[in-house]
């Protein structure tokens, strides 16, 4: 059995939910491993990020988001509206959590308290899910012709460096 | 290690979200592979389809849907209501995407523009997820006695031929 | 290849959605198996239960729920409100399903009909998902420092004994 790992690196600007389309990178990694039959696990190690499978689209909005990503934001906002104030609609973050975050060495939070108001980002990521597994069959990732793979960070409160972890297992 | 693939084939009538209960087919495939311990990956290659785990129910509504599937439709409709018009509630499909779809050889879309109004189906599928993995232990798929496995196509705009991909890995 | 299974056992009191944080148990199991590179599959065999990845928090509400779990309840309740009456908002459970449940030997349902009013618990679990897979790399479970793993039973209608199944595959 072949087992190989890879990490993809991303940077967000911290102004909105940020979507990265990674199908080609996933295909390239599968090809590098030489695995013909097996699985590809795509997993976020960050709790404001998620991984999902969605149709290739051709139009983008004024912010550069694919139309289905923009529409996804709209629906998720109904369930978990953007957090705007401390402990109003959401219980999170809470006093102890805030003190924990602000007390860490070099904490950005100590300088800018509002960045912890990202309850909605955590919950949207939970709803979509931190991981999706894809089948590799005869050397092909089974996404169909028009299926794309997205990694998203729902946290728009600050610029972040993010990783998406890939693992191929198979023969 | 044993690794085997299988595809299940389905046809929808294109009048509603269509649910297929596939637990027995999954169990039969696991038995065929001879795997006693490992995993079964159940993955949709279509972006309007999803895979999920839900209780066996005994009643169906007038459209033939299990009661929990009918109730699932109701909740998902609150988050992503059925798309009815071009570029109103949803940004999708967009001008370029429409032209791409209609321009493909033999495209059904060129004949019936309304079939692309399925933004809600894509987004409902994203919310539920394109894949679910199940554990195989001592030759048994760990669904419990009353856990069923569903493959669903949320696209009710046209009759479709659909595949659900299964992969067993284990010993 | 190493392949090992483990089950975690839980008891709920049947008064609310009950969350169990299981990251340390998952880490310990990975260490026991000796697997350095591979995957950990965390799967619920119960259809009112789900598995998800969420940030470590430090504050709990009056019911003992972590703040993000409490906030998750709030959003899920918008999509699938708590079932209160028989066949009102939800179609589930239905007459045949009720008779099936009540007719089983030693059925609690025969004594207390209201425990079957848990449509919302089934549907919330479907929305979150019955399983999440995590990558193991260099002996480490890729949750990041502040990522926790939760097993939840959304069924608050009765005290239940629940299992969460873990499988490690790798080298």
The stretches of 5 or more residues of chain A where confidence is low (pLDDT under 50) are: none
Helix content of chain A: 10-25%
C-alpha geometry of chain A = globular
SS field, number of helical segments of chain A: 4
Mean of the pLDDT scores of chain A? 96
- Please count the beta strands of chain A (DSSP E, at least 2 residues each): 8
Question: How much of the polypeptide of chain A forms β-strand, as a percent range?
Answer: 25-35%
Q: What letter string, H or E per element, gives the SSE order of chain A?
A: EEHEEHHHEEEE
What structural category characterises the helix and strand content of chain A?
alpha+beta
- Regarding quaternary structure, what we see is homotrimer
Cα gyration radius of chain A (Å): 18 Å
Characterization of this structure:
- 3 copies of one chain form a homotrimer.
- Chain A is an alpha+beta fold.
- Chain A has 4 helices and 8 strands, in the order ββαββαααββββ.
- Chain A has helices at residues 23-33, 67-79, 95-102, 119-128; strands at residues 2-11, 18-21, 38-43, 49-55, 131-137, 140-141, 147-153, 161-170.
- Chain A has a 5-stranded antiparallel sheet with strand order 1-8-3-5-6, covered by helices on one side.
- Chain A is globular, with a radius of gyration of 18 Å.
- Chain A starts with a strand and ends with a strand.
- The relative contact order of chain A is 0.37.
- Chains in contact: A-B, A-C, B-C.
- The B-C interface holds B 1, 37-39, 52-55, 57-59, 61, 67-68, 70-72, 74-76, 78-79, 127-129, 132-135, 137, 142-144, 146-148, 169-171 and C 1, 3, 5, 41, 43-48, 78-80, 89-97, 99-100, 119, 122-123, 126-127, 129-131, 133, 165, 167, 169.
